[in-house]
Design brief:
- This protein starts with a strand and ends with a helix.
- Helix 2 links the parallel strand 2 and strand 3.
- A three-stranded parallel sheet has the order 1-2-3, with helices on one face.
- Helix content is 45%, strand content 19%.
- By secondary structure, it is an alpha/beta fold.
- The radius of gyration is 12 Å and the shape is globular.
- Helix 1 runs parallel beside helix 2.
Length: 95
């Protein structure tokens, strides 16, 4: 069994924020073992394709550190976008 980590996404995400977010996540995970990262997106006010791109890149960053990223707190609009883009299987945890 691995460890759990929590990562928060702010109200708005721009394309310029993505490398910074990935760097912050990499720093959080550096030197830790396998486990799950719960990416809390409840604060995201207006989700769009850039938000989903950020989540996909964060997912890859987590994978590079032996972690699995799971999105939590997603509203219906963000869930629809994630599903439309085809990333619901790796990003949204099923009950």
């Amino acid at each position: 069994m691995g460890t759990e980590a929590r990562f928060l996404l702010g109200a708005a995400v721009t394309r310029a924020d993505i490398p910074v977010l990935c760097g912050d996540l990499a720093q959080l995970l550096r030197g830790t073992g396998p486990g799950v990262v719960h990416c809390d997106v409840a604060a995201v006010a207006r989700p769009d394709a850039v938000t989903v791109e950020a989540l996909a890149r964060l997912h890859l960053t987590a994978r590079r550190h032996g972690r699995r990223l799971v999105v939590t707190g997603a509203g219906p609009h963000l869930r629809q976008l994630i599903t439309l883009i085809g990333l619901d299987a790796p990003l949204i945890e099923r009950p």
